[in-house]
Amino acid sequence: MKKEWPVWEVFIRSKNGLEHRHCGSVHASDADMAMENARDVYTRRQEGVSIWVVETKHITASNPAENGEFFEPAKDKAYRHPTFYELPIDLKHM
Amino acid sequence: MEKSIAELEAQFQARIDRGESIEPKDWMPEKYRKTHIRQISQHANSEIVGMLPEANWITRAPTLRRKTALLAKVQDEAGHGLYLYSATETLGISRDEMYEKLHSGKAKYSSIFNYPTLTWADMGAVGWLVDGAAIINQVPLTRTSFGPYARAMVRVCKEESFHQRQGYEIMLTLCKGTEVQKAMAQDALNRWWWPSLMMFGPPDAESTHTAQSMIWKLKRKTNDELRQLFVDITKPQADILGLTIPDPDLKWNEETGHYDFGEIDWSEFWQVVKGHGPMNKQRLAARNKAWDDGEWVRDAALAYADKQEAMKEEKQELKKVG
Fold it and tell me: Model-level pTM?
């Protein structure tokens, strides 16, 4: 039977102070190999100072087909935005 | 060869001085870790306890518009508490430990929330003054040295601006209303003004943490500098409302280019910090009640998850047997 190495998602912090960002995935037999593969594939030009790898099967993703109802609660809440409030133009620093 | 602690600390400080961020897995002095756990968790606690004085008015907001805005503000505060607890957890303290410290009274939160919200106008004054002061305290923290704290503060500050605007709008509406409504607004300003000035902490001469916090960029301006900035920004805003700041010594100083203002009653501040403010007992009791009443929900969710896991395993077993 054919055995395929699992997929790992790769997140890279380009410099301290910034968050890790998803940049792609690698195949590897374990976490250590995934780490080295991620380094070799995604940071050949010093693109990062920190890498996270997480096996893809551990990620729970939202379903784009359900985006409508899933994100609906925030849709009609204009009052969560500062521009909703009417204030005098001579008011400063707010 | 192993580097000595002194060498590591010197390198660490040099990184901060160069403007580099410190991330959770980086080496850091124990004191840096402890101070950050204390400050960020207290900040989180303040967001959570800060929901209580406003929650007091959600059911009695005068219009649907005001009610939805206030609900959204209180929801944001819950969210801000969560961002900050998460940032603190990266330093190796658990969520439960932080809650335990808050609930037992060992950990602090901002003293301002130990004052009562007596009238609807307090929702205006809290948004305008308390959130205004919080923004002035928080903006410099978007560039603090600890990465997770700085990133949490970027989100918080972005969301915070609506809080202050909705508060000011409440004040503006009251001040354009009847004499009684305007008097309500003035009364709220009278009660919240001095506690708001105290939010910046003790005067520089008595502030024990300031020097170390400046070195770590946990503070970029001193308590007194930030307080002055708040007074300078807020006085013209009170003028637009036609309200009087309750300080006979408050006046523009041509020479300094700032407003002079009167003495703060620091004995009141310390009394509230030590637990003897008007609402300290009620606030902690409300937090403890919420935690205790929620216990069955937390347990039920875990029990459900365990059950699902067990059923999944059972199915797999059956498949193997089959």
Answer: 0.93
pLDDT single digits (tens) B104-142: 999 999 999 999 999 999 999 999 999 999 999 999 999
**What sign for the dihedral angle of Cα B161, B162, B163, B167?**
positive
CB pairs under 8 A between A and B: 63
B224 touches A: beta carbon within 8 Å: no
CB B169, CB A87: distance < 8 Å: yes
Q: A85-88: long-range contacts at Cβ-Cβ below 8 A with a sequence spacing of 24 or more?
A: A85/B162, A85/B165, A85/B166, A85/B168, A85/B169, A86/B169, A87/B165, A87/B168, A87/B169, A87/B172, A88/B172, A88/B240
φ and ψ at B51, to 5 degrees?
A: -70, -25
Which residues on A lie below 8 Å from B22 (Cβ)? 16
HSE at residue B315, side-chain half, CA atoms within 13 A, is: 6
Question: If DSSP states are collapsed to H, E and C, what string results for B127-185?
Answer: HHHHHHHHHHHHHHHHHCCEHHHHHHHHHHHHHHHHHHHHHHHHHHHHHCCCHHHHHHH
Residue B253: enclosing H or E segment and its boundaries?
strand B251-253
Q: Which strands sit side by side in the sheet containing A50-55, from one edge to the other?
A: A21-27, A7-13, A50-55
Query: Chain B window 41-80: which residues touch A at a Cβ cutoff of 8 Å?
Result: 65, 68-69, 72, 76
Euclidean distance between CA atoms B172 and B189, whole angstroms: 12
Return all residues near B163 (Cβ < 8 A) that are at least 6 apart: B73, B76, B127, B131
- Pick from B131, B140, B106, B139: which is nearest to B213 by CA? B140
Query: pLDDT tens digit string along A7-45?
Result: 999 999 999 999 999 999 999 999 999 999 999 999 999
